[in-house]
Amino acid sequence: MTHTLGRPDFDLITAWIAPGDRVLDLGCGDGTLLRHLIDTRGVHGWGVEIDDANILAAIKNGINVIQGNLERPLDEFADQAFDHVVLSRTLQTVRHTEGILREMLRVGREAVISFPNFAYWKNLRSVLDGRMPVSEDLPYQWYDSPNVRFFTLLDFEALCDKMGLVIRERHVLDEEGNLVEHEVNFLGSLAVYRLTLKR
Amino acid sequence: MPGQSVGVVATQRAHFDQPLQLRSGGVLPAYDLVYETYGTLNAAKSNAILVCHALSGNHHIAGHYADDPQNIGWWDNIVGPGRPLDTDKFFIVGLNNLGGCHGSTGPSTLNPATGKPWGADFPMVAVIDWVRAQARLADLLGIDSWAAVMGGSLGGMQALRWSITYPDRVRNTIVIAAAPRLSAQNIAFNDVARQAILTDPDFHGGHFYEHNTRPVRGLRLARMLGHITYLSDDQMGEKFGRGLRNEALSYHFGVEFEVESYLRYQGDKFAGHFDANTYLLMTKALDYFDPAREDNGNLTATMARSKASFLVISFSTDWRFSPARSKEIVAALLANSRNVSYADISLNFGHDSFLMYDAHYHDVIDAYLRNIKL
Protein backbone atom coordinates (compact mmCIF):
# COMPACT_ATOMS: atom_id res chain seq x y z
CA MET A 1 0.00 0.00 0.00
CA THR A 2 1.40 3.40 -0.91
CA HIS A 3 0.76 6.42 1.26
CA THR A 4 0.81 10.15 0.79
CA LEU A 5 4.33 11.40 1.31
CA GLY A 6 5.20 8.06 2.91
CA ARG A 7 3.03 8.86 5.94
CA PRO A 8 -0.01 6.59 6.37
CA ASP A 9 -1.40 8.83 9.13
CA PHE A 10 -1.46 11.75 6.66
CA ASP A 11 -4.03 9.93 4.51
CA LEU A 12 -6.33 9.45 7.50
CA ILE A 13 -5.90 13.02 8.68
CA THR A 14 -6.53 14.35 5.17
CA ALA A 15 -9.72 12.34 4.88
CA TRP A 16 -11.10 13.98 8.04
CA ILE A 17 -10.55 17.53 6.82
CA ALA A 18 -13.14 19.25 4.66
CA PRO A 19 -12.29 21.65 1.82
CA GLY A 20 -11.74 25.18 3.06
CA ASP A 21 -11.37 24.18 6.71
CA ARG A 22 -9.12 26.20 9.00
CA VAL A 23 -6.28 23.98 10.18
CA LEU A 24 -3.57 24.50 12.78
CA ASP A 25 -0.70 21.97 12.66
CA LEU A 26 1.25 21.89 15.91
CA GLY A 27 4.84 20.77 15.43
CA CYS A 28 4.39 21.18 11.68
CA GLY A 29 8.00 20.42 10.81
CA ASP A 30 8.79 21.60 7.29
CA GLY A 31 5.07 22.05 6.58
CA THR A 32 4.68 18.91 4.45
CA LEU A 33 1.23 18.00 5.84
CA LEU A 34 -0.08 21.57 5.58
CA ARG A 35 1.26 21.88 2.03
CA HIS A 36 -0.57 18.65 1.19
CA LEU A 37 -3.79 19.86 2.84
CA ILE A 38 -3.58 23.21 1.04
CA ASP A 39 -2.94 21.54 -2.31
CA THR A 40 -5.56 18.78 -2.00
CA ARG A 41 -8.18 20.32 0.32
CA GLY A 42 -7.74 24.05 -0.15
CA VAL A 43 -7.51 24.56 3.61
CA HIS A 44 -6.44 27.77 5.34
CA GLY A 45 -3.45 26.53 7.26
CA TRP A 46 -1.04 27.69 9.92
CA GLY A 47 1.74 25.73 11.61
CA VAL A 48 3.60 26.06 14.89
CA GLU A 49 7.25 25.05 15.11
CA ILE A 50 10.05 25.57 17.60
CA ASP A 51 13.02 24.58 15.47
CA ASP A 52 14.83 27.23 13.39
CA ALA A 53 15.61 24.87 10.49
CA ASN A 54 11.95 23.81 10.29
CA ILE A 55 10.77 27.43 10.41
CA LEU A 56 12.96 28.16 7.41
CA ALA A 57 11.87 24.98 5.59
CA ALA A 58 8.18 25.75 6.19
CA ILE A 59 8.58 29.32 4.88
CA LYS A 60 10.35 27.89 1.82
CA ASN A 61 7.34 25.56 1.47
CA GLY A 62 5.08 28.62 1.37
CA ILE A 63 3.43 27.72 4.68
CA ASN A 64 2.25 30.13 7.38
CA VAL A 65 4.42 29.14 10.32
CA ILE A 66 4.57 30.64 13.80
CA GLN A 67 7.66 30.02 15.92
CA GLY A 68 6.51 28.82 19.31
CA ASN A 69 6.90 26.29 22.09
CA LEU A 70 4.19 23.65 22.58
CA GLU A 71 5.12 23.39 26.27
CA ARG A 72 3.59 26.83 26.78
CA PRO A 73 0.05 28.16 26.26
CA LEU A 74 -0.78 29.04 22.64
CA ASP A 75 -1.55 32.62 23.64
CA GLU A 76 -1.41 34.05 20.13
CA PHE A 77 -4.37 31.90 19.06
CA ALA A 78 -7.94 32.83 19.94
CA ASP A 79 -10.55 30.42 21.33
CA GLN A 80 -12.15 28.12 18.74
CA ALA A 81 -10.22 29.75 15.88
CA PHE A 82 -9.72 26.49 13.95
CA ASP A 83 -11.82 23.61 12.65
CA HIS A 84 -8.98 21.16 13.23
CA VAL A 85 -5.86 21.29 15.37
CA VAL A 86 -3.40 18.61 14.29
CA LEU A 87 -0.65 17.08 16.41
CA SER A 88 0.97 14.39 14.27
CA ARG A 89 3.62 12.18 15.91
CA THR A 90 4.41 14.98 18.35
CA LEU A 91 2.42 14.31 21.55
CA GLN A 92 5.14 11.95 22.80
CA THR A 93 7.68 14.80 22.58
CA VAL A 94 5.66 17.19 24.74
CA ARG A 95 6.15 17.16 28.52
CA HIS A 96 2.95 19.04 29.40
CA THR A 97 0.58 16.45 27.93
CA GLU A 98 -2.61 17.69 29.55
CA GLY A 99 -1.69 21.30 28.82
CA ILE A 100 -1.29 20.75 25.09
CA LEU A 101 -4.48 18.67 24.85
CA ARG A 102 -6.45 21.38 26.63
CA GLU A 103 -4.94 24.09 24.44
CA MET A 104 -5.76 22.14 21.26
CA LEU A 105 -9.44 21.99 22.16
CA ARG A 106 -9.45 25.61 23.34
CA VAL A 107 -8.21 26.96 19.99
CA GLY A 108 -9.91 24.34 17.83
CA ARG A 109 -13.23 22.57 17.46
CA GLU A 110 -11.54 19.21 16.96
CA ALA A 111 -8.13 17.74 17.84
CA VAL A 112 -6.49 15.31 15.42
CA ILE A 113 -3.68 13.39 17.10
CA SER A 114 -1.36 10.63 15.91
CA PHE A 115 1.24 8.94 18.11
CA PRO A 116 3.32 5.76 18.29
CA ASN A 117 1.94 2.97 20.45
CA PHE A 118 4.50 1.84 22.99
CA ALA A 119 2.59 -1.42 23.57
CA TYR A 120 2.96 -2.54 19.92
CA TRP A 121 4.04 -6.18 20.12
CA LYS A 122 7.43 -5.61 18.49
CA ASN A 123 8.16 -2.88 21.04
CA LEU A 124 7.13 -5.18 23.86
CA ARG A 125 9.28 -7.99 22.48
CA SER A 126 12.22 -5.64 22.21
CA VAL A 127 11.85 -4.69 25.87
CA LEU A 128 11.46 -8.36 26.84
CA ASP A 129 14.71 -8.98 24.93
CA GLY A 130 16.28 -6.34 27.14
CA ARG A 131 16.53 -3.46 24.67
CA MET A 132 14.50 -0.29 24.17
CA PRO A 133 12.46 -0.50 20.97
CA VAL A 134 13.53 1.03 17.67
CA SER A 135 10.89 0.73 14.98
CA GLU A 136 9.26 2.43 12.00
CA ASP A 137 7.21 4.63 14.32
CA LEU A 138 9.76 4.88 17.16
CA PRO A 139 12.82 5.42 14.99
CA TYR A 140 15.21 6.77 17.63
CA GLN A 141 17.84 5.33 19.91
CA TRP A 142 17.09 5.87 23.59
CA TYR A 143 19.94 8.39 23.86
CA ASP A 144 18.95 10.63 20.93
CA SER A 145 15.18 10.40 21.10
CA PRO A 146 13.10 13.61 21.17
CA ASN A 147 10.38 11.56 22.86
CA VAL A 148 9.80 12.31 26.53
CA ARG A 149 6.49 10.45 27.10
CA PHE A 150 6.01 6.75 26.38
CA PHE A 151 2.41 5.58 26.41
CA THR A 152 -0.01 3.14 24.86
CA LEU A 153 -3.43 3.43 23.25
CA LEU A 154 -5.04 2.35 26.51
CA ASP A 155 -3.02 4.92 28.46
CA PHE A 156 -4.09 7.66 26.09
CA GLU A 157 -7.73 6.69 26.19
CA ALA A 158 -7.66 6.60 30.00
CA LEU A 159 -6.27 10.15 29.99
CA CYS A 160 -8.97 11.30 27.55
CA ASP A 161 -11.56 9.81 29.88
CA LYS A 162 -10.05 11.54 32.89
CA MET A 163 -9.97 14.88 31.04
CA GLY A 164 -13.50 14.52 29.71
CA LEU A 165 -12.36 14.42 26.08
CA VAL A 166 -14.56 12.51 23.66
CA ILE A 167 -12.97 10.16 21.15
CA ARG A 168 -14.98 10.66 17.96
CA GLU A 169 -12.96 8.33 15.78
CA ARG A 170 -9.86 6.15 16.01
CA HIS A 171 -7.73 4.40 13.42
CA VAL A 172 -4.83 2.11 14.27
CA LEU A 173 -2.08 1.18 11.83
CA ASP A 174 0.65 -1.44 11.75
CA GLU A 175 4.23 -0.68 10.77
CA GLU A 176 3.38 -1.01 7.08
CA GLY A 177 0.53 1.47 7.43
CA ASN A 178 -2.25 -1.10 7.11
CA LEU A 179 -5.35 -0.67 9.24
CA VAL A 180 -5.51 -2.88 12.33
CA GLU A 181 -8.99 -3.93 13.41
CA HIS A 182 -8.44 -6.30 16.35
CA GLU A 183 -6.20 -6.37 19.40
CA VAL A 184 -5.25 -2.82 18.48
CA ASN A 185 -3.20 -2.09 21.60
CA PHE A 186 -1.02 -5.12 20.79
CA LEU A 187 -0.98 -5.11 16.99
CA GLY A 188 -1.04 -1.37 16.33
CA SER A 189 2.17 0.64 15.83
CA LEU A 190 0.60 4.04 15.23
CA ALA A 191 -2.77 5.45 16.28
CA VAL A 192 -4.75 8.39 14.89
CA TYR A 193 -7.55 9.96 16.93
CA ARG A 194 -10.22 12.62 16.48
CA LEU A 195 -11.12 14.25 19.79
CA THR A 196 -13.59 16.90 20.85
CA LEU A 197 -14.83 18.29 24.13
CA LYS A 198 -18.11 16.90 25.46
CA ARG A 199 -20.91 18.66 23.63
CA MET B 1 27.86 36.74 3.65
CA PRO B 2 26.60 35.56 0.26
CA GLY B 3 25.86 37.83 -2.70
CA GLN B 4 27.32 41.16 -3.66
CA SER B 5 26.83 44.81 -2.84
CA VAL B 6 24.87 46.93 -5.30
CA GLY B 7 28.05 48.98 -5.80
CA VAL B 8 27.86 52.63 -6.82
CA VAL B 9 24.51 54.31 -6.15
CA ALA B 10 23.15 57.84 -6.52
CA THR B 11 20.63 59.87 -4.55
CA GLN B 12 17.58 61.35 -6.27
CA ARG B 13 15.30 64.15 -5.19
CA ALA B 14 11.59 64.64 -5.75
CA HIS B 15 9.65 67.83 -5.10
CA PHE B 16 5.97 67.69 -4.10
CA ASP B 17 3.74 70.75 -4.44
CA GLN B 18 0.52 69.20 -3.20
CA PRO B 19 0.10 70.22 0.49
CA LEU B 20 0.34 67.39 3.01
CA GLN B 21 -2.17 67.49 5.87
CA LEU B 22 -0.44 66.18 8.97
CA ARG B 23 -1.84 64.14 11.86
CA SER B 24 -0.79 66.88 14.30
CA GLY B 25 -3.07 69.38 12.52
CA GLY B 26 -0.30 71.19 10.67
CA VAL B 27 0.10 71.36 6.91
CA LEU B 28 3.28 71.12 4.87
CA PRO B 29 2.53 73.23 1.79
CA ALA B 30 5.33 71.67 -0.25
CA TYR B 31 8.26 69.38 0.47
CA ASP B 32 11.17 67.47 -0.96
CA LEU B 33 11.98 63.81 -0.45
CA VAL B 34 15.39 62.35 -1.22
CA TYR B 35 15.45 58.70 -2.19
CA GLU B 36 17.55 55.96 -3.73
CA THR B 37 16.54 53.00 -5.89
CA TYR B 38 18.40 49.79 -6.64
CA GLY B 39 17.56 47.25 -9.32
CA THR B 40 15.08 47.75 -12.17
CA LEU B 41 11.34 48.29 -11.99
CA ASN B 42 9.78 45.62 -14.21
CA ALA B 43 7.27 46.41 -16.97
CA ALA B 44 4.31 45.42 -14.79
CA LYS B 45 5.75 47.58 -11.97
CA SER B 46 5.08 44.68 -9.65
CA ASN B 47 8.55 44.05 -8.20
CA ALA B 48 9.00 47.11 -5.99
CA ILE B 49 9.99 46.84 -2.32
CA LEU B 50 9.92 49.85 -0.03
CA VAL B 51 12.44 49.78 2.83
CA CYS B 52 11.50 52.19 5.63
CA HIS B 53 14.19 53.53 7.91
CA ALA B 54 14.35 53.62 11.69
CA LEU B 55 15.17 56.44 14.11
CA SER B 56 18.51 57.55 12.72
CA GLY B 57 18.41 55.98 9.26
CA ASN B 58 17.95 57.54 5.87
CA HIS B 59 17.53 56.90 2.15
CA HIS B 60 21.03 55.47 1.71
CA ILE B 61 20.23 51.82 2.36
CA ALA B 62 22.87 50.12 0.28
CA GLY B 63 25.93 50.56 -1.90
CA HIS B 64 28.27 53.54 -1.85
CA TYR B 65 28.75 56.81 -3.72
CA ALA B 66 31.26 57.17 -6.53
CA ASP B 67 32.84 60.15 -4.78
CA ASP B 68 32.52 58.72 -1.26
CA PRO B 69 33.34 54.98 -1.28
CA GLN B 70 33.48 54.82 2.54
CA ASN B 71 29.84 55.92 2.87
CA ILE B 72 28.18 52.50 2.75
CA GLY B 73 24.39 52.22 3.15
CA TRP B 74 22.98 51.34 6.58
CA TRP B 75 21.52 47.97 5.49
CA ASP B 76 24.00 47.10 2.77
CA ASN B 77 24.33 43.48 3.98
CA ILE B 78 20.78 42.58 2.85
CA VAL B 79 20.59 44.36 -0.53
CA GLY B 80 22.26 43.34 -3.79
CA PRO B 81 22.56 40.56 -6.35
CA GLY B 82 22.21 37.21 -4.55
CA ARG B 83 21.13 38.82 -1.29
CA PRO B 84 17.61 38.61 0.22
CA LEU B 85 16.62 41.96 -1.33
CA ASP B 86 17.92 40.70 -4.65
CA THR B 87 18.39 43.57 -7.08
CA ASP B 88 18.34 41.09 -9.98
CA LYS B 89 14.71 40.46 -9.12
CA PHE B 90 13.41 43.41 -7.10
CA PHE B 91 13.32 47.18 -7.42
CA ILE B 92 14.29 48.51 -4.00
CA VAL B 93 13.27 51.99 -2.84
CA GLY B 94 14.56 53.82 0.21
CA LEU B 95 13.83 57.40 1.20
CA ASN B 96 14.58 59.88 3.94
CA ASN B 97 11.41 60.59 5.88
CA LEU B 98 9.90 64.03 6.37
CA GLY B 99 11.52 65.75 9.30
CA GLY B 100 14.79 63.94 8.59
CA CYS B 101 18.21 65.52 8.30
CA HIS B 102 19.64 63.79 5.28
CA GLY B 103 18.16 65.87 2.47
CA SER B 104 14.37 65.56 2.77
CA THR B 105 12.42 68.54 4.06
CA GLY B 106 12.97 68.81 7.79
CA PRO B 107 13.87 71.16 10.64
CA SER B 108 17.32 71.91 9.24
CA THR B 109 16.05 72.83 5.74
CA LEU B 110 14.84 76.31 4.84
CA ASN B 111 11.27 77.31 5.60
CA PRO B 112 10.18 79.12 2.42
CA ALA B 113 7.91 81.38 4.49
CA THR B 114 10.81 82.83 6.50
CA GLY B 115 13.90 82.05 4.46
CA LYS B 116 15.41 80.58 7.63
CA PRO B 117 15.74 76.94 8.80
CA TRP B 118 12.43 75.58 10.10
CA GLY B 119 13.96 74.63 13.44
CA ALA B 120 11.33 74.24 16.15
CA ASP B 121 8.64 75.54 13.74
CA PHE B 122 8.74 72.33 11.73
CA PRO B 123 5.40 70.62 12.35
CA MET B 124 5.22 67.44 14.40
CA VAL B 125 5.14 64.45 12.04
CA ALA B 126 3.59 61.05 12.74
CA VAL B 127 4.22 57.66 11.17
CA ILE B 128 1.02 57.99 9.14
CA ASP B 129 2.33 61.27 7.66
CA TRP B 130 5.51 59.55 6.55
CA VAL B 131 3.48 56.76 4.99
CA ARG B 132 1.27 59.25 3.13
CA ALA B 133 4.37 61.03 1.81
CA GLN B 134 5.83 57.65 0.81
CA ALA B 135 2.61 56.90 -1.08
CA ARG B 136 3.12 60.07 -3.11
CA LEU B 137 6.64 58.95 -3.94
CA ALA B 138 5.15 55.61 -5.03
CA ASP B 139 2.73 57.53 -7.28
CA LEU B 140 5.64 59.44 -8.77
CA LEU B 141 7.51 56.20 -9.48
CA GLY B 142 4.37 54.64 -11.01
CA ILE B 143 4.09 51.98 -8.30
CA ASP B 144 0.43 51.18 -7.60
CA SER B 145 1.17 48.30 -5.26
CA TRP B 146 4.36 47.32 -3.47
CA ALA B 147 5.48 43.71 -3.69
CA ALA B 148 6.58 44.34 -0.10
CA VAL B 149 6.95 47.12 2.43
CA MET B 150 9.44 46.34 5.15
CA GLY B 151 11.54 47.78 7.92
CA GLY B 152 13.09 47.24 11.33
CA SER B 153 12.08 49.03 14.55
CA LEU B 154 10.43 52.36 13.62
CA GLY B 155 10.75 51.15 10.00
CA GLY B 156 8.66 48.10 10.85
CA MET B 157 6.01 50.40 12.31
CA GLN B 158 5.81 52.24 8.97
CA ALA B 159 5.38 48.89 7.21
CA LEU B 160 2.57 48.00 9.63
CA ARG B 161 0.95 51.40 9.06
CA TRP B 162 1.15 50.91 5.27
CA SER B 163 -0.80 47.67 5.54
CA ILE B 164 -3.55 49.42 7.53
CA THR B 165 -3.78 52.75 5.67
CA TYR B 166 -3.19 51.49 2.12
CA PRO B 167 -4.34 47.84 2.21
CA ASP B 168 -4.65 47.70 -1.58
CA ARG B 169 -1.15 49.01 -2.17
CA VAL B 170 0.85 46.46 -0.12
CA ARG B 171 0.97 42.77 -0.99
CA ASN B 172 3.49 41.75 1.66
CA THR B 173 4.57 43.35 4.90
CA ILE B 174 7.78 42.47 6.71
CA VAL B 175 7.80 43.83 10.26
CA ILE B 176 11.10 43.34 12.10
CA ALA B 177 11.95 44.12 15.75
CA ALA B 178 8.91 46.36 16.09
CA ALA B 179 5.88 46.79 18.36
CA PRO B 180 2.27 47.82 17.77
CA ARG B 181 2.74 50.69 20.23
CA LEU B 182 5.38 51.85 22.69
CA SER B 183 5.29 50.81 26.32
CA ALA B 184 5.54 53.31 29.18
CA GLN B 185 9.18 52.27 29.58
CA ASN B 186 9.86 52.92 25.88
CA ILE B 187 8.33 56.39 26.12
CA ALA B 188 10.23 57.07 29.34
CA PHE B 189 13.58 56.37 27.67
CA ASN B 190 12.61 58.63 24.77
CA ASP B 191 11.62 61.42 27.12
CA VAL B 192 14.93 61.33 28.98
CA ALA B 193 16.68 61.55 25.60
CA ARG B 194 14.53 64.52 24.63
CA GLN B 195 15.09 66.25 27.96
CA ALA B 196 18.83 65.97 27.41
CA ILE B 197 18.42 67.93 24.14
CA LEU B 198 15.72 70.36 25.28
CA THR B 199 17.70 71.44 28.36
CA ASP B 200 20.99 71.93 26.51
CA PRO B 201 21.70 75.71 26.61
CA ASP B 202 22.80 75.48 22.97
CA PHE B 203 19.33 74.24 21.91
CA HIS B 204 17.86 77.78 21.86
CA GLY B 205 14.31 76.53 21.71
CA GLY B 206 15.12 74.63 18.52
CA HIS B 207 16.45 77.69 16.66
CA PHE B 208 20.11 76.95 17.32
CA TYR B 209 20.96 77.28 13.60
CA GLU B 210 20.59 81.07 13.87
CA HIS B 211 23.04 81.05 16.77
CA ASN B 212 25.61 79.12 14.77
CA THR B 213 25.71 76.43 17.37
CA ARG B 214 24.29 72.94 17.97
CA PRO B 215 23.10 71.23 21.17
CA VAL B 216 25.90 68.69 20.91
CA ARG B 217 25.97 67.82 24.62
CA GLY B 218 22.27 67.00 24.75
CA LEU B 219 22.31 65.07 21.52
CA ARG B 220 25.34 63.10 22.72
CA LEU B 221 23.60 62.14 25.96
CA ALA B 222 20.43 61.21 24.07
CA ARG B 223 22.38 58.90 21.79
CA MET B 224 24.35 57.33 24.65
CA LEU B 225 21.10 56.52 26.44
CA GLY B 226 19.45 55.25 23.29
CA HIS B 227 22.45 53.12 22.44
CA ILE B 228 22.21 51.27 25.76
CA THR B 229 18.65 50.27 24.89
CA TYR B 230 19.74 48.95 21.48
CA LEU B 231 22.24 46.47 22.94
CA SER B 232 21.71 43.41 25.11
CA ASP B 233 23.15 43.01 28.60
CA ASP B 234 24.86 39.78 27.50
CA GLN B 235 26.44 41.44 24.51
CA MET B 236 27.74 44.37 26.58
CA GLY B 237 29.07 41.88 29.11
CA GLU B 238 30.88 39.91 26.43
CA LYS B 239 32.17 42.94 24.58
CA PHE B 240 33.26 45.09 27.51
CA GLY B 241 32.64 43.32 30.79
CA ARG B 242 34.32 45.40 33.48
CA GLY B 243 37.33 45.95 31.25
CA LEU B 244 39.38 49.05 31.95
CA ARG B 245 40.98 51.50 29.55
CA ASN B 246 44.08 51.58 31.72
CA GLU B 247 45.33 48.77 33.89
CA ALA B 248 44.44 50.25 37.27
CA LEU B 249 41.48 52.16 38.64
CA SER B 250 42.27 55.88 38.68
CA TYR B 251 39.38 57.23 40.78
CA HIS B 252 38.23 60.10 38.58
CA PHE B 253 35.22 60.94 36.37
CA GLY B 254 37.02 60.52 33.09
CA VAL B 255 36.88 57.37 31.00
CA GLU B 256 37.87 54.35 33.07
CA PHE B 257 35.73 51.45 31.89
CA GLU B 258 35.76 50.27 28.28
CA VAL B 259 31.99 50.59 28.10
CA GLU B 260 32.25 54.29 28.96
CA SER B 261 34.75 54.81 26.19
CA TYR B 262 32.52 53.01 23.71
CA LEU B 263 29.37 54.91 24.62
CA ARG B 264 31.09 58.30 24.59
CA TYR B 265 32.56 57.50 21.19
CA GLN B 266 29.13 56.52 19.85
CA GLY B 267 27.60 59.68 21.35
CA ASP B 268 30.27 61.94 19.86
CA LYS B 269 30.05 60.32 16.45
CA PHE B 270 26.27 60.73 16.33
CA ALA B 271 26.17 64.24 17.79
CA GLY B 272 28.72 65.35 15.22
CA HIS B 273 26.34 64.97 12.30
CA PHE B 274 22.72 64.35 13.38
CA ASP B 275 20.17 67.12 13.75
CA ALA B 276 18.77 67.55 17.26
CA ASN B 277 15.33 68.65 16.04
CA THR B 278 15.08 65.57 13.84
CA TYR B 279 15.96 63.40 16.84
CA LEU B 280 13.15 65.03 18.82
CA LEU B 281 10.65 64.54 15.99
CA MET B 282 11.59 60.91 15.38
CA THR B 283 11.26 59.97 19.04
CA LYS B 284 7.87 61.70 19.23
CA ALA B 285 6.71 59.81 16.13
CA LEU B 286 7.66 56.62 17.95
CA ASP B 287 5.75 57.67 21.09
CA TYR B 288 2.63 58.64 19.13
CA PHE B 289 2.58 55.45 17.04
CA ASP B 290 -0.49 53.46 18.06
CA PRO B 291 -2.63 52.52 15.05
CA ALA B 292 -5.09 50.65 17.30
CA ARG B 293 -5.95 53.96 18.97
CA GLU B 294 -8.45 54.47 16.14
CA ASP B 295 -10.18 51.28 17.35
CA ASN B 296 -10.14 51.98 21.10
CA GLY B 297 -6.93 49.99 21.49
CA ASN B 298 -8.28 46.89 19.73
CA LEU B 299 -5.40 45.90 17.45
CA THR B 300 -7.38 42.98 16.03
CA ALA B 301 -9.99 45.44 14.73
CA THR B 302 -7.22 47.59 13.27
CA MET B 303 -5.49 44.72 11.50
CA ALA B 304 -8.83 43.68 10.00
CA ARG B 305 -8.27 46.53 7.53
CA SER B 306 -5.02 44.98 6.25
CA LYS B 307 -5.02 42.62 3.30
CA ALA B 308 -1.33 41.83 2.96
CA SER B 309 0.57 38.69 3.89
CA PHE B 310 2.97 39.20 6.78
CA LEU B 311 6.37 38.09 7.94
CA VAL B 312 7.01 39.17 11.52
CA ILE B 313 10.49 38.81 13.00
CA SER B 314 11.77 39.43 16.53
CA PHE B 315 15.11 38.85 18.24
CA SER B 316 15.57 36.84 21.42
CA THR B 317 17.78 39.46 23.13
CA ASP B 318 15.81 42.56 22.07
CA TRP B 319 14.43 44.11 25.25
CA ARG B 320 13.49 47.44 23.65
CA PHE B 321 10.84 45.76 21.47
CA SER B 322 10.83 42.24 22.86
CA PRO B 323 9.52 39.12 21.08
CA ALA B 324 6.32 39.47 23.14
CA ARG B 325 5.63 42.78 21.36
CA SER B 326 5.96 41.14 17.94
CA LYS B 327 3.62 38.39 19.12
CA GLU B 328 0.95 41.03 19.80
CA ILE B 329 1.06 41.85 16.08
CA VAL B 330 1.02 38.14 15.17
CA ALA B 331 -1.98 37.48 17.42
CA ALA B 332 -3.95 40.36 15.86
CA LEU B 333 -3.20 39.01 12.37
CA LEU B 334 -4.09 35.42 13.32
CA ALA B 335 -7.38 36.63 14.78
CA ASN B 336 -8.13 38.01 11.31
CA SER B 337 -7.02 34.80 9.53
CA ARG B 338 -4.27 36.70 7.74
CA ASN B 339 -1.38 34.89 6.14
CA VAL B 340 1.41 35.38 8.65
CA SER B 341 4.68 33.73 9.53
CA TYR B 342 6.64 34.59 12.64
CA ALA B 343 10.29 33.88 13.41
CA ASP B 344 12.01 34.64 16.70
CA ILE B 345 15.70 34.81 15.82
CA SER B 346 18.33 33.89 18.42
CA LEU B 347 20.87 36.66 18.07
CA ASN B 348 22.95 38.33 20.73
CA PHE B 349 22.86 41.93 19.54
CA GLY B 350 19.68 43.13 21.25
CA HIS B 351 17.49 45.55 19.29
CA ASP B 352 20.38 46.25 16.90
CA SER B 353 20.22 42.61 15.73
CA PHE B 354 17.96 43.64 12.86
CA LEU B 355 20.88 45.39 11.17
CA MET B 356 23.31 42.50 11.57
CA TYR B 357 24.12 39.75 9.13
CA ASP B 358 23.02 36.36 10.43
CA ALA B 359 22.65 33.43 8.03
CA HIS B 360 19.36 32.16 9.50
CA TYR B 361 17.82 35.64 9.80
CA HIS B 362 18.66 36.51 6.21
CA ASP B 363 17.66 33.04 4.97
CA VAL B 364 14.19 33.51 6.49
CA ILE B 365 13.69 36.84 4.68
CA ASP B 366 15.17 35.39 1.49
CA ALA B 367 12.86 32.36 1.60
CA TYR B 368 9.82 34.55 2.23
CA LEU B 369 10.64 36.98 -0.60
CA ARG B 370 11.39 34.16 -3.05
CA ASN B 371 7.82 32.87 -2.65
CA ILE B 372 6.01 36.14 -3.27
CA LYS B 373 4.24 36.49 -6.59
CA LEU B 374 5.28 39.40 -8.79
Number of helices of chain B: 10
Q: For the terminal residues of chain B, how far apart are their CA atoms?
A: 26 Å
Give the beta-strand count of chain A: 7
Largest beta-sheet details of chain B: 8 strands, mixed
Major β-sheet strand ordering of chain A: 3-2-1-4-5-7-6
Number of separate strands of chain B: 12
Alpha carbon gap, first and last residue of chain A? 37 Å
How confident is the prediction overall: mean pLDDT of chain A?
95
Q: Approximately how much helix is present in the residues of chain A?
A: 25-40%
Largest interface: A-B, 21 and 22 residues
Low-confidence stretches of chain A: none
Helix content of chain B: 25-40%
Widest β-sheet, arrangement of strands of chain B: 1-4-6-5-9-10-11-12
Structure description:
The complex is a heterodimer of chains A (199) and B (374). In chain A, 31% of the residues lie in helices and 24% in strands. The model of chain A has no long low-confidence stretch (mean pLDDT 95). In chain A, helix 3 (52-60) links the parallel strand 2 and strand 3. Chain A has helices at residues 8-16, 32-41, 52-60, 97-107, 121-128, 153-163, 184-187; strands at 22-26, 44-49, 64-67, 82-88, 108-116, 165-173, 190-197. Chain A has a seven-stranded mixed β-sheet, sandwiched between helices. By secondary structure, chain A is of the alpha/beta class. With 374 residues, chain B is α/β, with parallel strands linked by helices. In chain B, the strands form three sheets. An eight-stranded mixed β-sheet of chain B has the order 1-4-6-5-9-10-11-12, with helices on both faces. The mean pLDDT of chain B is 97.
